[in-house]
Design the sequence.
C-alpha cells in the first residue's frame, strides 16, 4: 500500500515537473509583438411590430447589426446590415437573425404570433363559454431555466390569475408543470411537479381554494414548442392552466 | 489522451496535493485514468484468442442451412460482444474446419496465422422438428487433454430455438474464460418505446432480437425496472390520478395491485434482494426519496431536503446504500446515502448529473453528466463512471448526442444507455470502458433501458 502511494506521489511529482517545465518554456520565449487589436464582435438585434397578428395581416420586422459582413434571416435569406421588411406568415414564426463578421457570430431571434381566427359560426353566436372565458383570462406562468420560483416579471400574471379565479369561484382547473427538453426525463418530471405546486401555492396564498386546483407534471413529455432555441425553451418552461369541465 | 482525461488527471493531482492521500491509497496507478476501470470491471485481464469456425450440419434436413446461419451469427455475436475473448478473424482459419473432436487438427489452429489458444466448434442438425447442437471448447495448446467443455442441446427447430442454444453455449464459454462471471447472452433489456404512438414499456433480448410491447396503458409510461427474480416489472405511469407506480407481472402478463400514494410518484428501484422498492414521491409537497415493501406497504420517507430528490438506485452488492439525484443546491447532482436515509454525501462536484446506477460489484456508479451546463455553455450529456470510494471518474462516451440513463448489465462489464447521436433517441450498449459501442434499436424513439439482473 505504502509503495503504491509512493508510486502515485512520484507520478504526480513527475506531472508537476512537466507542467512547470512547460511554464518555464513559455517564460523563456521572447516577448511576442503587441497583437493587432482584435476585430470588433458583431452586434445584432431584431424585433417585430406588432408581435401578434391574425392570418392575412402583416407585421414589420426591424433589425440592426454592426461589425457584420454577412447578415441573414432564416426563411428570408441574406439581408442588409440593418433594415426592415413586412412579413405576413400564416402560422406563428420565430425569426432567427445571424450576423457574421471578422469578430465572430452574433444571433438574435424574435417571435411573431399568429392568432387563429375564430370559426365563423362562433362569431355568429358570440356567447363565450366558461371555458372560453377561462382561456382568455387566465395567463400561464413562465419560469427560469431549472427554477421553480415565480420570477418578478411573472408575478403580475399570477396575481391577475388569482383575482380572476377568486371572481369565478365555480371554476375548477388543473395546473400543468412543464419543462424544456434539455434536462433528464425523471428530474424534469420532479421539476415540473414543483412548478405546478409553486403556482398552486401562490393562488392558495391569494385566497383561491386548494380544493379547486389539481396539479400534474408533464416534465418534458408534452412540449408546446419543438425548436432548439431559448425562445422555444421559454415557451416550454411554464405552469399551464387547463379548465376542468 | 483527450481533454477530459487530462482534466480527470489534473483533478486527481489536485486531490493528492490538497492532502487527500488517504482516498487514493487504494489506487494502483494514475498513469492511465482507465486502469482502475478495467480492473474493477474485470475488463483488464488478457483476452484469450478464441477461434470460432462455423458449426457444421450433422443431418441432411433442408431446415439446417437457415438455422445454422441463425446459430452461427448469434454465437459469434455473443462471444464478440462479451469483452472477455479476442475472436480470431475467420480469414486466418484453415480450409478444413472441424464439426466434431475427431476432425480437430491441433497444429492447424495453435500456430500462426490463427495462433488460437482456444477453439469452439461443433455441429447442428434438425431431425423430426427438433434441433440438436453439439458443441465443444478445446484448449488447442493442451493437445494431451484439450477438452474444456463438451455440450449437447436440443430445442424446437425454430430460429428462436437456434438462438437460445447459441446463447446458452456462448454463456458456458464466457463463464469459463471470463473469470467465472456468468455471461449475459440470455439476459433481457426493458425500455420505453413510443413506436405504438404512446410511450409504453417494451422488452428485447440483450442483442436486440425479439422486441415486443409489454404494457398497453395508452398514456405515458416511463422508468421500467425489472425485479431481481425477473417476475415483476415496476414503472411509473400517468394515470387518472397522476403519476403512479405500477407493477406488471411478467408471469401473469398483466398489472398486479399496487397502492396509489398521491402526488407525483416516479422512478421505482428494486433492492437487490427484491424485498423493497425505492421511489420518489411528492405526496407531501416536494419530490423526496421513499422506500416501501415490494407490495407497496410500509412506505417511509428517507430525504427531507428542499429541491427535488429523484431517481434512486440501490447498491446492488450490499443493498445498504442508495444513490439518488438531488436539486438541493440548484442543478441536479448525484448523492449517496445509507438505505435508512442517513449519511447523505454529494458525489458530483459540478454541472448537471442525473440517472445514477450502481454496478453489480458495488464499486462503481455510472451516471449521465453534463459537466459544463448552462445557458451559453452547451456541454454535452455523456455517460460517466465513478469509483464510489475515491469519487474518481472517467468519461465513457465522447461521440456527441445527448446520452442518458446508463444501466449496468449483470456481468458488470457492459452498460446500456440511451443516446441521440444517431439523430433521435435510441438504445445503445458498450463495454464498461467505453469500447464496443453499438446501437440496439432503430424504430421509433427508445429510451430508459433497464437490464435484467441475470
Sequence:
Amino acid at each position: 500500500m505504502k509503495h503504491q502511494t509512493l508510486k502515485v506521489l512520484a507520478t504526480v511529482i513527475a506531472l508537476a515537473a512537466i507542467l512547470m517545465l512547460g511554464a518555464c518554456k513559455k517564460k523563456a520565449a521572447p516577448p511576442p509583438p503587441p497583437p493587432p487589436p482584435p476585430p470588433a464582435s458583431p452586434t445584432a438585434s431584431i424585433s417585430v411590430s406588432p408581435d401578434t397578428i391574425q392570418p392575412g395581416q402583416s407585421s414589420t420586422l426591424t433589425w440592426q447589426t454592426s461589425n457584420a459582413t454577412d447578415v441573414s434571416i432564416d426563411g428570408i435569406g441574406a439581408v442588409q446590415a440593418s433594415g426592415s421588411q413586412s412579413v405576413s406568415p400564416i402560422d406563428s414564426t420565430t425569426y432567427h437573425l445571424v450576423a457574421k463578421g471578422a469578430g465572430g457570430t452574433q444571433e438574435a431571434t424574435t417571435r411573431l404570433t399568429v392568432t387563429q381566427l375564430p370559426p365563423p359560426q362562433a362569431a355568429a353566436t358570440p356567447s363565450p363559454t366558461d371555458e372560453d372565458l377561462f382561456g382568455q383570462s387566465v395567463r400561464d406562468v413562465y419560469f427560469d431555466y431549472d427554477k421553480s420560483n415565480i420570477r418578478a416579471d411573472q408575478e403580475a400574471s399570477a396575481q391577475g390569475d388569482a383575482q380572476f379565479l377568486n371572481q369565478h369561484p365555480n371554476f375548477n382547473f388543473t395546473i400543468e408543470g412543464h419543462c424544456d427538453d434539455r434536462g433528464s426525463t425523471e428530474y424534469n418530471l420532479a421539476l415540473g411537479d414543483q412548478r405546478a405546486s409553486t403556482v398552486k401555492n401562490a393562488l392558495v396564498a391569494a385566497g383561491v381554494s386548494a380544493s379547486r386546483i389539481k396539479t400534474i407534471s408533464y416534465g418534458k413529455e408534452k412540449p408546446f414548442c419543438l425548436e432548439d432555441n431559448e425562445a422555444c425553451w421559454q415557451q416550454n418552461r411554464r405552469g399551464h392552466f387547463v379548465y376542468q369541465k | 489522451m483527450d481533454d477530459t482525461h487530462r482534466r480527470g488527471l489534473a483533478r486527481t493531482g489536485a486531490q493528492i496535493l490538497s492532502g487527500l492521500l488517504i482516498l487514493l491509497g487504494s489506487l494502483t496507478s494514475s498513469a492511465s485514468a482507465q486502469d482502475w476501470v478495467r480492473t474493477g470491471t474485470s475488463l483488464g485481464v488478457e483476452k484469450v484468442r478464441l477461434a470460432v469456425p462455423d458449426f457444421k450440419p450433422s443431418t441432411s434436413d433442408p431446415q439446417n442451412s437457415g438455422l445454422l446461419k441463425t446459430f452461427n451469427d448469434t454465437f459469434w455475436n455473443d462471444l464478440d460482444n462479451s469483452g472477455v475473448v479476442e475472436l480470431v478473424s475467420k480469414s486466418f482459419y484453415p480450409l478444413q474446419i472441424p464439426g466434431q473432436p475427431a476432425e480437430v487438427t491441433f497444429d492447424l489452429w495453435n500456430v500462426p496465422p490463427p495462433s488460437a489458444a482456444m477453439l469452439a466448434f461443433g455441429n447442428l442438425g434438425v431431425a423430426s422438428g427438433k434441433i440438436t447442437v453439439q458443441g465443444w471448447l478445446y484448449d488447442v495448446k493442451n493437445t494431451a487433454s484439450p477438452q474444456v467443455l463438451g455440450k449437447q442441446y436440443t430445442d424446437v427447430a425454430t430460429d428462436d430455438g437456434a438462438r437460445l442454444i447459441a446463447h446458452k453455449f456462448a454463456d458456458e464459454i464466457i463463464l469459463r474464460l471470463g473469470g467465472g462471471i456468468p455471461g449475459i447472452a440470455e439476459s433481457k433489456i426493458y425500455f420505453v418505446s413510443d413506436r405504438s404512438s404512446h410511450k409504453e414499456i417494451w422488452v428485447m433480448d440483450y442483442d436486440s432480437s425479439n422486441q415486443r410491447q409489454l404494457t398497453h396503458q395508452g398514456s405515458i409510461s416511463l422508468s421500467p425496472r425489472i425485479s431481481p427474480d425477473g417476475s415483476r416489472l415496476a414503472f411509473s405511469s400517468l394515470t387518472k390520478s397522476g403519476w403512479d407506480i405500477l407493477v406488471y407481472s411478467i408471469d401473469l402478463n398483466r398489472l398486479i395491485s399496487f397502492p396509489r400514494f398521491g402526488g407525483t410518484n416516479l422512478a421505482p428501484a428494486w433492492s437487490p434482494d427484491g424485498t423493497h422498492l425505492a421511489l420518489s414521491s411528492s405526496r407531501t409537497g416536494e419530490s423526496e426519496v421513499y422506500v416501501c415493501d415490494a407490495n407497496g406497504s410500509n412506505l417511509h420517507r428517507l430525504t427531507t431536503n428542499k429541491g427535488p430528490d429523484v431517481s434512486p438506485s440501490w447498491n446492488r452488492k450490499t443493498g445498504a446504500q442508495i444513490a439518488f439525484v438531488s436539486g438541493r443546491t440548484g442543478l441536479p447532482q448525484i448523492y449517496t446515502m445509507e438505505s435508512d436515509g442517513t449519511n447523505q454525501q454529494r458525489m458530483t462536484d459540478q454541472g448537471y448529473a442525473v440517472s445514477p446506477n450502481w454496478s453489480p460489484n458495488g464499486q462503481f456508479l455510472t451516471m449521465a453528466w453534463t459537466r459544463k451546463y448552462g445557458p451559453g455553455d452547451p456541454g454535452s450529456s455523456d455517460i460517466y463512471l465513478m469509483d464510489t470510494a475515491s469519487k474518481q471518474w472517467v468519461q465513457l462516451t465522447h461521440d456527441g448526442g445527448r446520452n442518458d440513463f446508463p444501466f449496468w448489465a449483470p456481468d458488470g462489464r457492459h452498460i446500456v444507455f440511451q443516446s441521440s447521436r444517431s439523430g433521435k433517441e435510441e438504445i445503445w450498449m458498450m463495454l464498461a470502458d467505453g469500447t464496443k459501442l453499438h446501437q440496439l434499436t432503430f424504430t421509433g424513439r427508445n429510451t430508459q433501458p433497464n437490464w435484467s439482473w441475470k
